[in-house]
Amino acid sequence: MKIENSLNDKSSIRNKLRKISTINSAVILLLCWLLLSSTSLLFIKSYEKRNLELIAATLSTTLTAATVFEDSYDAHNKIARLGNEGMFDSAKLVTDDHTVLVDWHDRQEQTGWYPRLLREWIYLKPLSVNINHSEANVGTLTLEGTVTGAADFIRYSLMILTSGMLCVLIISFLLSEFLHRGILASLRNITSSIHYVIHSGDFSLRIPESPTREFQLFSNDLNSLLTEMQTLQASLIRDNRTLAAKALEDPLTGLANRAAFVARLTQLLDQQLAKERFVLLFLDGDRFKSINDNWGHAAGDEVLKAIGSRLSALAYKQDLVARLGGDEFAMLVSSRASEAQLQLLMQDINEAISQKIVIAEGTPISTSVTIGYAWSQHGDTVESILERADMNMYKNKGKSKVRR
């Protein structure tokens, strides 16, 4: 929808091309119209003047006898006959002694600004010819040309010429629209592809080939850019996943860290109504400070790695083993649903941890953990279940000190 709106927008390239084509065609046709109109008007002017001169020459010859004998009746008939046929608007016959034999005017002469301007432009002034007899001037014939035929011819010619130009303009516009389809289709492919990539974030799309060389080069460059962006996106996704995994992983033991442990515990508490209850084990290392003091921190790190590995070996797939910090570990156990199963698991943990750990120098080290646990209850929060497990752990640590 947005793409269609952009195509219909006044600032779109489609409307820009349409405007350019229309203006270009209109200017060319206007110039052609002016050229043809001017040529036609000049031709009509020359034709009408030449025609009036021929009429005057012919009429002056036929009026020679009437002028010599001052026969106004005969002269009037001859002039009126041609005048009624639309050959001229007015005629005046004067003898050499200034006697007016005929002063004829067309009663149907057109009036108004258009015939008046046309008459003044074509004829400028009335045409006067001498009437000669025996090589002597016996009179003068003055004619004013008619513009009736010329006015109608010019009017209809301009109407036909204008109509033809408008038809040509429309055809030119439609032809331009047809010729612009290839350009617009190429641009539409490019813009729609870019629009899709921007809004979807999918850089796997490729712009199709274009028959226009410039658009094809542009499409190739965009496709190359999309390929690079797709590669960069895949690299960023891998890096983000790696960073996300590392953010939830203890760097020393490879177990889940405190943040991952709290997130998983929160999830189990939210699901405890739909699933069976689970148990939280809190494990605290014994004599870990003395191991660091006697054998160094490197040995302490090896001990922590071994404890984490042994706890992971006892956990099922749905269980979670985490290192909370220092020598504190925790387990979220969903695979044991009874107290007896839990006691058996804790026994296995104590036996596994109590086995000697051989450090890099080949020295065997013994260690142990104190375990506190808490079963999940309805209405538990992260803080409440951690507090119960922690209290149980310290209670068991106190018991082990009394036994020792």
From TrEMBL:
Transmembrane portions of the chain: 21-44, 153-175
Reaction(s) this enzyme catalyzes, per UniProt: 2 GTP = 3',3'-c-di-GMP + 2 diphosphate
Domain GGDEF residues, every copy: 276-404
UniProt keyword annotations, A-Z: Membrane, Nucleotidyltransferase, Transferase, Transmembrane, Transmembrane helix
Assigned EC number: 2.7.7.65
Domain of life, source organism: Bacteria
Family matches, as Pfam families: CHASE8 (PF17152), GGDEF (PF00990)
Pathways involved: Purine metabolism; 3',5'-cyclic di-GMP biosynthesis
Domain HAMP: 181-234
Listed GO MF terms: diguanylate cyclase activity
Family matches, as Gene3D superfamilies: 3.30.70.270, 6.10.340.10
PROSITE patterns documented for this protein: GGDEF, HAMP
NCBIfam families for the chain: GGDEF
Record's protein name: diguanylate cyclase
Record organism: Pantoea leporis
